[in-house]
């Protein structure tokens, strides 16, 4: 699959299929700018997990994994399925988790 190709989706659109494995799809109601911010948070958190595990820093790893969880829930990929939520619940989900991610972002911390 080319990096610019869209992954195959299930007929209901709830999941994507990557290498034969089903994963929950990102909530399609997310505004693109919000989804992009959440993906940046997710990638930064995943890098932080890798750094923490390499450094054998259990505390930093727990914090980084919590950030991954917030980003995945905000994207609609974990937690209550987005297709079972009302539009207001979906908006509150990503707004609340994005606010938490923004507030806790390492580059936002006071030195």
Describe the structure.
The protein has 111 residues and is mainly α. It has one domain (30-108). It contains 3 helices and 3 strands; from the N terminus they run βββααα. α2 packs antiparallel against α3 (87-104). The model has no long low-confidence stretch (mean pLDDT 92).
The termini sit apart by 42 Å
Provide the structure class: mainly alpha
Major beta sheet, strand line-up: 1-2-3
User: Low-confidence segments, ≥5 residues, pLDDT <50?
Assistant: none
Main sheet characteristics: 3 strands, antiparallel
Task: Label the overall shape.
Answer: globular
Q: How many domains, in number, for the residues?
A: 1
Roughly what fraction of the amino acids lie in strands?
5-15%
Number of strands: 3
> What is the count of DSSP helices, taking H or I runs of 4+ residues?
3
Q: How confident is the prediction overall: mean pLDDT?
A: 92
Percent of residues in helices comes to 40-55%
Order of helices and strands: EEEHHH
Please give a handful of descriptors for the protein shown.
111 residues, mainly alpha, three-stranded antiparallel beta sheet, 3 helices, 53% helix, Biopolymer transporter Tol
Q: How would you briefly describe this protein structure?
A:
This is Biopolymer transporter Tol. The protein is mainly α.
């Amino acid at each position: 699959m080319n990096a610019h190709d869209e992954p195959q989706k299930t007929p209901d659109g709830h999941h994507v299929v990557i290498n034969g494995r089903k994963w929950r799809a990102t909530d399609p109601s997310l505004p693109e700018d919000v989804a992009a911010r959440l993906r940046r948070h997710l990638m930064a958190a995943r890098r932080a997990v890798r750094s923490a595990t390499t450094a054998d820093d259990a505390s930093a790893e727990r914090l980084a994994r919590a950030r991954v969880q917030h980003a995945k829930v905000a994207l609609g990929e974990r937690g209550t399925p987005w297709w079972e939520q009302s539009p207001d619940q979906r908006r509150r989900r990503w707004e609340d988790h994005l606010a938490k991610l923004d507030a806790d972002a390492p580059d936002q911390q006071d030195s």
